[in-house]
Each structure stands twice: as structure tokens, then as C-alpha cells.
Write a structure and sequence with these properties.
The protein is of the alpha+beta class. It has 5 helices and 8 strands. 36% of the residues lie in helices and 32% in strands. Helix 1 runs antiparallel to helix 2. The chain starts with a helix and ends in a 6-residue tail after the last strand.
């Protein structure tokens, strides 16, 4: 950074740039240096590689209507139905339609499957990022995204 500033000042003193150009160049250089120096801690760790959506949890007033609609429209097979919720599959993903007491349907969480699942390493990285992981299964954790949305992170062996 020192060398960049020195070169800019030298160019100004030699008449190669105006005072305005010097100030603009210094502002850009300082901004870039600050951005690099203050990069978020999250970026310094190991990022996970999402490989698919594991499942989408969909809360509705009457899951049977949702089940019948998605099964009929998209030919999603119903792989499990316990009278309160069902699992409809497509590719490597499941749509879980669940009854809930409210009348407004909502997606309450989405689970992403990541590559190279290692429960201890995943938990450590989530904690390092300040995400307070909550274990759900042997192969998944729940965290909140920056907007407070429930996000589930899972390994390939996590079955919805």
C-alpha cells in the first residue's frame, strides 16, 4: 500500500496527474485496501459446497390438497404420508407438505445438502461463523440466515 501511495504522489509531483486525479486515486486505493483488510471472518473459513436442495418444508392448512395438487401437476410420487404430513419427491429433493394451525401457507425452512459432510467440521465452521448451529439429525444442523430465516444444512445421508 505504501508503494502505491508513493507512486501516486510521485506521479502528481511530476505533473502526470492533477490534484483531483491524485485524490480520487488515493481514495480508490485506500478503499480497496480497507475492503481487503476488513473482509468478513466468514470468508476466511472453509465454505461449504451446496450440491442440491434436500427438502422444502411447506406448512399449509390442509396438506392433502397440497399433496394432491403437486402429485397430479408434477407427477411427484408420495413416498410417505402419516395423516399430518407427506413427502413428495422430485429428483434428489423432497417437498414436505405439513398441516399447521394458521391459514397462511408458508415455507418454514429449506434444507440444502452439502458435499463432503463431516458433522464435527461442519459444526465447528458454523460456530466459527457465529451461527449457533442446532443439531436436527445425525446428518444436519439448523442455523438462521442473516434475515432470521431457518436454514437447514445437511449431508448426503440426511433423508427428509
Amino acid at each position: 500500500m505504501e508503494q502505491i501511495i508513493s507512486n501516486l504522489v510521485q506521479d502528481f509531483e511530476q505533473g502526470k496527474m492533477s490534484r483531483r486525479q491524485l485524490i480520487q486515486s488515493l481514495a480508490v486505493a485506500v478503499t480497496a485496501a480497507t475492503a481487503v483488510a476488513t473482509k468478513p471472518a466468514a470468508a476466511e473459513g472453509k465454505a461449504f459446497k451446496a450440491i442440491c436442495v434436500n427438502h422444502i418444508s411447506y406448512q399449509v392448512a390442509d396438506y392433502t390438497k397440497t399433496r394432491d395438487f403437486y402429485s397430479d401437476l408434477f407427477s411427484m410420487p408420495v413416498v410417505r404420508d402419516n395423516g399430518k404430513q407427506c413427502f413428495l419427491t422430485f429428483g434428489d429433493t423432497a417437498l414436505i407438505a405439513r398441516n399447521h394451525s394458521g391459514n397462511t401457507p408458508r415455507i418454514d425452512h429449506i434444507a440444502y445438502t452439502i458435499d463432503n459432510w463431516d458433522k464435527d467440521a461442519v459444526e465447528a465452521e458454523l460456530k466459527r461463523r457465529g451461527l449457533q448451529p442446532r443439531p436436527d439429525t445425525e446428518n444436519s444442523f439448523h442455523v438462521l440466515d442473516p434475515n432470521g430465516y431457518d436454514l437447514q444444512i445437511s449431508g448426503k445421508d440426511m433423508k427428509a
